[in-house]
Amino acid sequence: MIQATGVILAGGKSVRMGTDKAFLKVGPQGMLEHIAGEFKKVFAEVLISGGDPETGRNLGLRVINDLIEGKGPLCGVHAALHEAQHDKILVVACDMPFVTAKLACFMMRQVEGYDVAVPSHGIYLQPLFAAYSRSCLPVIEESLAANKYKIDGFFPRVRVNYVNMENYCSHIDIETLFFNINTPVDLHKAREMADKKITN
C-alpha cells in the first residue's frame, strides 16, 4: 500500500455531456466506481474532490469540497493537498475510464524528488493524471490569488518531472490510457474501446 492519497476529481459541470459523467458506465462499472476501485488497490487513502457526499458514502470514500469555489480543477488540486492525510497525491479526472492501479503506482514513483510528476505524450501534458506534493501549495495559492486558474500554469515555478510516456510505457496503448470523455461521441467511442479490450 502506497502511503499517499489518490484523488478523483468529480466536481466538473459536465456541460458538453449533459449529465454527470462520473456515473456513466464504460464496461460493467461507472467511471467513478472503476477509478475508486483501482485506487483502493494501491493508496492508503482515497478521496473524491467535488460531487455528491452521498456518492462518497456509497463508495466508502470521503468527499471534499473546494476551498476556493468555481475556478476549475486547480481548485480541486488545492483542496486535496490541504485535506489529504499524506504529503503526496495522485490526481485523476473522473472521466478517464481506463486508469489502472499499475499506472497509478508508476506515477507515484516518478514524483520522488520532485514537486510534480506529469505524463507527457508528444506535445501534450496530462495534468489531470499527475502526482503533486504538498510543497506546491504556496505557489498554487499565489496563482489562485492572481486569478490564474490554468492547472499547469504554476509548473515553471516548481520542480516538475515531465514523464515521457513513450519512453517508459512503449508496451502499452497510451492513447487508450489517457482517453477522457467529454461528449456523447466520446462515450460511444470509449464503450467500443472497452468492448475490444474484453473480447481480445
Automatic annotation (TrEMBL):
Alphabetical GO biological process terms: Mo-molybdopterin cofactor biosynthetic process
Which Pfam families does the record cross-reference, listed alphabetically? Answer: NTP_transf_3
Q: Which residues bind GTP?
A: 9-11, 21, 66, 95
Provide the protein name. Answer: Probable molybdenum cofactor guanylyltransferase
Q: Which UniProt keywords apply?
A: Cytoplasm, GTP-binding, Magnesium, Metal-binding, Molybdenum cofactor biosynthesis, Nucleotide-binding, Nucleotidyltransferase, Transferase
Q: Which cofactor does it need?
A: Mg(2+)
**Its biological purpose:** Transfers a GMP moiety from GTP to Mo-molybdopterin (Mo-MPT) cofactor (Moco or molybdenum cofactor) to form Mo-molybdopterin guanine dinucleotide (Mo-MGD) cofactor.
Name the EC number(s).
2.7.7.77
Keyword presence, Transmembrane = no
Annotated binding of Mg(2+), by residue: 95
Q: List, for all copies, the residue spans of the domain called MobA-like NTP transferase.
A: 6-146
Query: What CDD domains does the record point to?
Result: MobA
Q: Which family does it belong to?
A: Belongs to the MobA family.
Q: What is known of its domains?
A: The N-terminal domain determines nucleotide recognition and specific binding, while the C-terminal domain determines the specific binding to the target protein.
Molecular function via GO: GTP binding; metal ion binding; molybdenum cofactor guanylyltransferase activity
Q: Name one GO cellular component term.
A: cytoplasm
Q: Which reaction does it catalyse?
A: Mo-molybdopterin + GTP + H(+) = Mo-molybdopterin guanine dinucleotide + diphosphate
Compartments, record wording: Cytoplasm
Native organism is Pelotomaculum isophthalicicum JI
Which EC class does it fall in?
A: transferase
